[in-house]
Structures are given as structure tokens and as C-alpha cells.
């Protein structure tokens, strides 16, 4: 160890820079680096572990110490230059790891609570609105009341509210991404959950058409925004692990976290829906009051247990010597983002290069079957003869399979890796539509769905790859997740239209076959497919997704 007292801080910084350059470019050190990469002469290396420049008295001093590890970080806060012991760096890394684990667990818990809250009242608006509209119709004339039933009015109102929620999510998701990049992840999480608390409290205290409508819009839009925040939190905690030579391991960890997050959401939706159906029969105040309780618990859990993952990411980058970029936004940038919001739904397809565009297209291909909308329920009713209760049981079964697949995903990733697990998931997604086309037996279709239980995890590999690529490109995670949510919101609006057109086209083919109006092999095949045409599209999309996954992940 030696000390040197330069006349100024500038001289100290200059000397530090020269020593680091010598340490990197000295031929002897390069020779030792070469052998160290092969596992030899590890103890013969003398590198500076860390340098810290701090304020210290009236004179500036420089103190350097040699250790047996590589340089870790250079922190500048003005004054004396000292080394940080290697054991202190190790303790800091261990502490950051514990903080990341705590934050990730808090995210899973908060997501579970808030999804339970929204799921409890997911099926309450229709009977509640119908009841309030029925009371209001008693004050109108009989002629007016016979024009449209209260239930028809309630369905019309819910359709309008769903369109409003989708539009808000489409245009506001990119702005939410800007918001969480500027303010971190914790404050927006608490604020968004508090909006759900407000909506539930509004209905619990004063149930009416307006309060129920407000709660419906808030739950729909805020639920989408919370997905943006959750994905950004996971990206903060694991995207930094994608250094050279460790990117695949980092993506595996990210995939595991995304799987657990999906399992938490699925479990919350399943439990909330089961409880909500019973509570809605008792009364809307009870249902919304119980939802209010879970939403308050979510706010409290996020407030006291969750740490800001963006700050943890910056601390982790500083510990590894990576320069952390500022997440502050000036007014000009904010104004630009507001103006670009309407076009943000297609940014991922045109703005970040061919690789990001390919991954975005893959995500759309994997998401399309999920957005079949009412077409699947209509097909199940007409083709399999399922009642609403039987259809609900089938959806609940698929929900349980989703929970099982997401909980077992870490084991799958550990044994197969992210790429092979993604290929398996895409292949699993083909079992259900193939069986639906080839057989009319409902039990066989359900068995195929059970065999392909990992189909619900196919988007995890794609999302992890997009997050890692954004980290490499220097794209803020909030911006990425906001633009991705906006793209999926637009896709969710378009997909039911496409699937509806295919279903109607297939129904015409079936009618032509029944009336004996088809001749030729191709026409007979069209008649045989009939209303199964949407599932043919799902098979085509699955095959294309498999090819893209094979090439790009």
C-alpha cells in the first residue's frame, strides 16, 4: 500500500486513470489475464478492487490498495481516493440479492391480492346494473320499458365500458411506461392500486349505475397498467444479469420469475372468481366490500414490503461498475411522449430493429388464440352443447392447469433451458386445436388440453427475450412494457373481429354442406371444417410461432 498527496483533485483523478490504464494495457497483466481465463495463476493477479473519491479535509489524498480481484466500481463523490475492501463488496452484493428477493415476493403477493380484489367483482356488474336499471324502469312509462329490457341495457352499457377501458389502455399504457421510468415502480404501483380501492369504496358506500360503471372502467384499465409495472419490476431485477456469457442464465431466471408471477395472477383470478360468484348472490355491497378489503391489503403490502426495483437495479449496476443512466424526464421529452402515444402500439414493430420486430410478431402470434373472445364460448355452446355452468367449469379447469404449469416452470427451465422450454410450450399449444378439428368428442378435447398444459407459458420466453434485448439496446424497461401493452391492447381489439369473421364463414360452409350444395374434394373439406375454421388459424399461427422460436430464441 502506498499514499500519494497530489496538489489537487484533478491530479488525483488523472493518476487514477493512468493506473487503471496501465493495469489494463500492461503486457504482463495481459499475459496474466490470458492464463487467468483458463483457470491458472488466479492468485498472482494484483488488481484494484474499487476506488472511491470522497471529500476529505483541506488537502486531497490518494490511497490505493492492491487485492486479488478485478476492479468492481469507481464512485465519485469528491475528495480522497480510497479502496473498498473486497469483503465489503461481497456483503453489498449479498444484501442486494436479499432485497431483490424481498421485492419479488412482495410483487407476487401484491399482484395476487389485487387480482383477487378485481376478480371478486368481475361478474357483479351485469346483475347489479340490471337490478338498478329495473328499479329505474319502474318510473318510466310502460311503452318506454318495453322498448329495451333492463338486461339488454346493462349489456349495452358493459360493452361501452369495455370499449372505454380498452381505449384507455391502448393510448395510456405508453404514458404509464414513461411515468414509471420517471418515478420508479413503487409509487405508481401504490397509486394504481389505490384507484381500485377508490372504485370499490365508491360502490360499497353508494351502489348505483354510475359508481358500478366507474369501478368497472377503473378495474379494467388499471389492471392492464399494473401488468406494465409488474413486467418492469421483473425486468429491473433480472435484466442486469444478461452480461456477456450470462445472458441465457439471466433469461432463465427472468422466465422463472415471470412464471411465478403468472401463477400468482392465475391463482388470484381463480379464487376471486369462485368467491365472487357466491358473494354477488348475497348482495353487491358484500361483494364490493370484500373486494375493497383485498385491495386495501394490496396497497398496504406494496407500501411496507415492496422496494423500488428501479433503485435496486441502479444500485446493482453501480456495484458491477455499470454506468446507470438517469431516468429523469424533462418537459420536452414528456411532451414528445404524449404526442407519440397514439402510435406507440406499433413502435416495437418498426423502431427498434429487425430482432425486436421479430420478437414482437412472435408475441402477437402467441397471444392471438387467447383473444378469441366470445367466439370460443359460442362454439362450445353450439358444437359441444355446453351450458354456461359447464363452460365455466372448463375455464376453471384451464385456470388450474395454468397455475400448475407456471408453478412447475422453474423446474422445466432448470432442466431444458429457456429455448427448449419455449419450444415445448409452443408445441403444447397445438394439441387443443388439433384435437378440436379431428374429433367431436368433448372429453378427448379436454384430455388434449391437459396434455398441452404448458401452452399457457409460451409467451414467457418471448417476453424474457424482448426484455433482455431492450436492456442491450438501452431502452427503458417502463417504455418497453408500456409500448408492448399498447400493442397487445390494439391486438385484443382486432382479434375478436377476425375470429368472428372466420366463425361466420365456417358456419356458411357448414350450412352449404347440410343443404348438399358442395361438390368436389376442396368443397367437402371446407364443409367438414365448418365452424372449426378459427382453430385452423390457431394451428397455422402455432406452426409459424414454432419456426420463429426455433430461429430467434
Architecture overview:
The strands form two sheets. A three-stranded mixed beta sheet has the order 4-2-5. It has a two-stranded antiparallel ribbon with strand order 1-3. It has helices spanning 9-25, 27-36, 86-120, 125-137, 142-147, 150-183, 186-205, 209-238, 247-282, 284-305, 309-320, 331-340, 347-350, 354-367, 374-383, 388-407, 409-428, 431-438, 442-451, 458-473, 477-514, 521-529, 533-552; strands spanning 2-4, 50-54, 62-64, 73-76, 80-82. With 553 residues, the protein is mainly alpha-helical. 75% of the residues lie in helices and 3% in strands. The chain is globular, with a radius of gyration of 28 Å.
Strands, count: 5
Distance between the termini: 49 Å
Question: How does the overall form come out from the CA principal axes?
Answer: globular
* Helical fraction: over 70%
Proportion of residues in β-strands: under 5%
Largest sheet: 3 strands, mixed
Backbone CA Rg: 28 Å
Topology:
Elements: E1 2-4, H1 9-25, H2 27-36, E2 50-54, E3 62-64, E4 73-76, E5 80-82, H3 86-120, H4 125-137, H5 142-147, H6 150-183, H7 186-205, H8 209-238, H9 247-282, H10 284-305, H11 309-320, H12 331-340, H13 347-350, H14 354-367, H15 374-383, H16 388-407, H17 409-428, H18 431-438, H19 442-451, H20 458-473, H21 477-514, H22 521-529, H23 533-552
Parallel strand pairs: 2-4
Antiparallel strand pairs: 1-3, 2-5
Amino acid at each position: 500500500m502506498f499514499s500519494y498527496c497530489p496538489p489537487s483533485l484533478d491530479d488525483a483523478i488523472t493518476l487514477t486513470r493512468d493506473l487503471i490504464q496501465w493495469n489494463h494495457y500492461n503486457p504482463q497483466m495481459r499475459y496474466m489475464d490470458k492464463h487467468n481465463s483458463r483457470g491458472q495463476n488466479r492468485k498472482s493477479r494484483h488488481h484494484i478492487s474499487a476506488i472511491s473519491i470522497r471529500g476529505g479535509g483541506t488537502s486531497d489524498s490518494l490511497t490505493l490498495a492492491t487485492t486479488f480481484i478485478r476492479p468492481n466500481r469507481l464512485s465519485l463523490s469528491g475528495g480522497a481516493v480510497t479502496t473498498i475492501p473486497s469483503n465489503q463488496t461481497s456483503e453489498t452484493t449479498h444484501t442486494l440479492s436479499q432485497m431483490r428477493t424481498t421485492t419479488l415476493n412482495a410483487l407476487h403477493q401484491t399482484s395476487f391480492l389485487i387480482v383477487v380484489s378485481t376478480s371478486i367483482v368481475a361478474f357483479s356488474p351485469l346483475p347489479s346494473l340490471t337490478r338498478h336499471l329495473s328499479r329505474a324502469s319502474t318510473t318510466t312509462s310502460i311503452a318506454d320499458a318495453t322498448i329495451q329490457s333492463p338486461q339488454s341495457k346493462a349489456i349495452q352499457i358493459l360493452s361501452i365500458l369495455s370499449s372505454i377501458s380498452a381505449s384507455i389502455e391502448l393510448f395510456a399504457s405508453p404514458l404509464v411506461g414513461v411515468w414509471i421510468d420517471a418515478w420508479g415502480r413503487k409509487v405508481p404501483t401504490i397509486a394504481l392500486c389505490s384507484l381500485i380501492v377508490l372504485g370499490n369504496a365508491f360502490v360499497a358506500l353508494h351502489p348505483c349505475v354510475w359508481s358500478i360503471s366507474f369501478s368497472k372502467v377503473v378495474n379494467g384499465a388499471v389492471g392492464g397498467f399494473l401488468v406494465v409495472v409488474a413486467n418492469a419490476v421483473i425486468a429491473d431485477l433480472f435484466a442486469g444479469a444478461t452480461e456477456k456469457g450470462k445472458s441465457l442464465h439471466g433469461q432463465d431466471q427472468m422466465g422463472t420469475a415471470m412464471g411465478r408471477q403468472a401463477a400468482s395472477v392465475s391463482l388470484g383470478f381463480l379464487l376471486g372468481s369462485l368467491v365472487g360468484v357466491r358473494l354477488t348472490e348475497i348482495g353487491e355491497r358484500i361483494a364490493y366490500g370484500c373486494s375493497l378489503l383485498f385491495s386495501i391489503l394490496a396497497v398496504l403490502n406494496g407500501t411496507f414490503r415492496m422496494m423500488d426495483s428501479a433503485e435496486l437495479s441502479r444500485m446493482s449496476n453501480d456495484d458491477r461498475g455499470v454506468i446507470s443512466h438517469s431516468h429523469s424526464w424533462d418537459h420536452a421529452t414528456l411532451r414528445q411522449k404524449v404526442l407519440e402515444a397514439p402510435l406507440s402500439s406499433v413502435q416495437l414493430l418498426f423502431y427498434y430493429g429487425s430482432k425486436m420486430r421479430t420478437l414482437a410478431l412472435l408475441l402477437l402470434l402467441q397471444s392471438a388464440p387467447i383473444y378469441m373472445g366470445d367466439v370460443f364460448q359460442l362454439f362450445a355452446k353450439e358444437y359441444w352443447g355446453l351450458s354456461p355452468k359447464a363452460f365455466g367449469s372448463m375455464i376453471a379447469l384451464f385456470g388450474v392447469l395454468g397455475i400448475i404449469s407456471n408453478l412447475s416452470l422453474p423446474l422445466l427451465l432448470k432442466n431444458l433451458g429457456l429455448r427448449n422450454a419455449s419450444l415445448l410450450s409452443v408445441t403444447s399449444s397445438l394439441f387443443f386445436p388439433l384435437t378440436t378439428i379431428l374429433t367431436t368428442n368433448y372429453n378427448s378435447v379436454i384430455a388434449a388440453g391437459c396434455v398441452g398444459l404448458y401452452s399457457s407459458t409460451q409467451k414467457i420466453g418471448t417476453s424474457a427475450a424482448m426484455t433482455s434485448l431492450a436492456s442491450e439496446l438501452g431502452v427503458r424497461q417502463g417504455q418497453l412494457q408500456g409500448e408492448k401493452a399498447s400493442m397487445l391492447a390494439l391486438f385484443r381489439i382486432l382479434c375478436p373481429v377476425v375470429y368472428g369473421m372466420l366463425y361466420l364463414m365456417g358456419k356458411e360452409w357448414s350450412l352449404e354442406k347440410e343443404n348438399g350444395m358442395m361438390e368436389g374434394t376442396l368443397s367437402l373439406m371446407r364443409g367438414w371444417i365448418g365452424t372449426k375454421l378459427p382453430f385452423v388459424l390457431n394451428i397455422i399461427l402455432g406452426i409459424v410461432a414454432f419456426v420463429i422460436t426455433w430461429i430467434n430464441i
